[in-house]
Every structure is written in C-alpha cells, then in structure tokens.
Amino acid sequence: MTADLTARLRDVVGPAGVVEDPAGFLTDWRGAYSGTAAAVVRPGSTEEVAAVVALCRDLGVAVVPQGGNTGLCGGAVPDASGRQVVLSLTRMRRIRDLDVANSTITVEAGVVLQTVQEAAAAAGRLFPLSLGAEGSCTIGGNLATNAGGTGVLRYGTMRDLTLGLEVVLPDGRVWHGLRGLRKDNTGYDLKQLFVGAEGTLGVITAAVLELFPAVRSTATAWVALPDPQAAVDLVGVVRGSAGDRLTAFELMSRQSVDFVLRHGAGVRDPIADVHPWYALVELSDTLPDAGLEAVVEAALGESVERGVVTDAVVASGSAQVAALWALREGISEAQNSEGPSLKHDVTVPISAIPAFVAATDRALAGALPGVRVVAYGHVGDGNLHYNLSGPQPRDDGAFRARAGELSRIVHDSAAAFDGSISAEHGLGQAKRDVIADYKSPLELELMRGVKQLLDPAGLMNPGKVLPG
C-alpha cells in the first residue's frame, strides 16, 4: 500500500513534492512528539493540496497538515501507525497580493511569519503578530493554532488579524474565501471555524491578513516588581497614561530570567539587584517623535511613588531594546537546557493573575518540594506560560513520572479561576484527552457536530483537539 500510495502521490505533486527523507517532518522541534508516516508530501499549489486530500479521502488515508512544525502540543506530528500522510505546506511561499490602500496582504500558508513582517515593512505597513519562532513558523500554523504572541494587547490574535481564507475541505473541494472585507454581514463567519482548528476541519492554503500603519517610534522599559499584583497594577497605570500605545507587557519571574542568564549567549542582567518579578513594557506610535520615553517615565515614576515598581531601566537605543527582548524571548530555549520541562499555556482574567500564581505555586510546592516554576507571559491579556522544571539535583525520570499529576494541578487551578488550559498553543495531542474535564458536555457535542459535518470520515488530523 505504501509504495502504491507514494507513486500515486508523486503523480499528483511531482517528484519534487514527495519527501524522500522524512525524518525532519516526523518529530516536533522539541523532540517531545514523534511518529511515522506512510508518506510526506509538499504540494506546491492549492490545486495540488486539493488533489492530495481528495486522493487520501478516496483511499481512506488520514492527512496531517503541517507548517513550520514549531508547535508545542504535537498538533502537526503524525501518530505511530505509519498509515498517515503528512502534508507540509512549506513549498507554498507566495505573497499573492499586497493592497496598501486596503491595508491587507494575501499570502500562502507556507510563508514564514518573518517574511510577512518584512513584506509589510517594505510597503510602509506593519503586520503585528510577533513571537519567538517568527523566523521559522508559518502563517498556516499561526492560523491553525490562533497564534497570539507579544502584540495581542494592542492588535489581537490571528482571529482578529484575519479577514479571509482559502481552505481545502476534507473532500478535496476548495472554499475560496479570500475576501479583504472588514464588513461582511451575510451569515456565518466561516473563516473562524478553521482558525484555531489545528487542521482538523480542513487545510488552510492562503489568507488575507490585516495590516496596520508602520511603527515609527517606541519606548521600552525593564521594570522590577515585588509581586504579580504589582504587574497588574502597573498595566493599569501605563494604560491610563498611554492608552492603546501600550503594545506589549510581558511578565517574567526571577526563575525565568535566571535560566536565560545562565544559558543565553551575551545576555546580562539589566538591573544589578535581584528582584522576584520583572516586566518588559513597550509603547509604540506611528509618529516619528511621539515623546513615548516621557510617557513611560512618567508612568513608572507614578508607580514608584505608589510602591508598585521597585526599580526600572528605560532602553536608550535599539541595541538595548534588543537585549531586553532577548531576555524575554530566550526563556523557553533556556529552560530546555535545564532538563525536561512541563509547558503550560494558561489564561485567566487579568485581575485573577496574582491569586492564580499564589495558589498554584503553593499547590505545586506541596506536591513536589523544590519544583522550579518558570512563569512568564503576556500578562496584559491574562496569558501565562506557567512552566515547570524538576527540583535540583535532577532526577529526570522521577520528574517525568509526575508530569500528569503536576499538569493537573496547573490546569485545575486555571479552571478554578475561570480560565482556560490553552491560551495560544492549542490542544494538539498534548491536551486532547484532558480537555473533556474542562469543557462542558454541550461544548464538546457542538465541536464534534462541526467535525462530523465537515469531516465525516475523520481523516483530517485525527487524534488531535477532540478527545476520543
């Protein structure tokens, strides 16, 4: 079957579209999830994607869509059966259109996020999605997981940045929804079915994305804080002064920063004294001389007087700005150097962040004394990456054995504060089975109904998102 399938797929996508050495497509970038595949194909057009999906439908072969394979939940990795086809969109790299007057860019799913950012900048516009993997993640993956990143506070998630989609449905038909309209009140907003669906309802092949005026001035500050409540208070102060010019507000525990200082290259502590928490605050404006430094300094001065801020440094140039962001963006990779880690991507109401952190820290310390909590994230929108590393000295096997129990503590705590167990990474296979404990039976019934309607044979990325 495999040889015959590969031959028929080659007839569809040509020799260049069949991957002879599939190793790099079968394991995620962290090495946390691995599988095998009947074949790995890289179609070069929407028509080829549709033909591959139709062929697999006729043969009863499951399809696993894949972008840059930078996800954290195993959503783009095949299972171990060897009977699934990995469909990589990485050859679909065309920017089809850039409409400056309409402030939109139409791109194929395999375009790397950084490429979209650069194309927008060359046209005097901004595409605001920004995250650590932007040099390798693709727009298709960003859409499939409803990526958020550091700019959600001002610009929203991929749902908010997407105006239209082109999607290959599970039966091989193509929905041509590439409309750059901001108003279209003609029924159900179908594109939102596919954004965040992780390829379980169809294959996104292209998108119309919204652009914004280019940023011409910024102000960036590194702020020392006594506790998470101070971070919540500081968000309020800065928003009161800066309004929607507050673009990013990133919170980091000292443990997070320590890991980066230990393992990052060329990084240093911006503030000599050690503090329990830090925030990276960034303002931006479309005006070249917007006086943002004065705005942020005034907000920080007020916060110092109120006892909210302990110390702060305002970056004086692009090199210092890059150095501050390197501390924030280096956390995930630095934690990997400390052995196995448990990644949690939770969200709670912003006002509940301090109580959530205190309660969860306390519960974890009771369950596993010495556990190292690496908490950081986009506190301005309530999203915390509440990650765990094992105690010192390391016993990786013992820590891995406790993974389910420890993750349950974090997820239960998020739910107790009316939060979600996934803010921006998706469910994939990592959280597929536990989501049933945090969504109502009615929600799951409705989700399964949508899946049954669009993919009755269950061939689109099976084993992901929906519990068995």
TrEMBL record:
Molecular function in Gene Ontology: FAD binding; oxidoreductase activity
Named cofactor requirement(s): FAD
GO terms under biological process: respiratory electron transport chain
FAD-binding PCMH-type domain: residues covered: 33-214
Keywords, alphabetical: FAD, Flavoprotein, Oxidoreductase
UniProt-recorded name of the protein: FAD linked oxidase domain protein
Domain of life, per lineage: Bacteria
Keyword Methyltransferase: no
Family (UniProt): Belongs to the FAD-binding oxidoreductase/transferase type 4 family.
UniProt KW Glycoprotein keyword: no
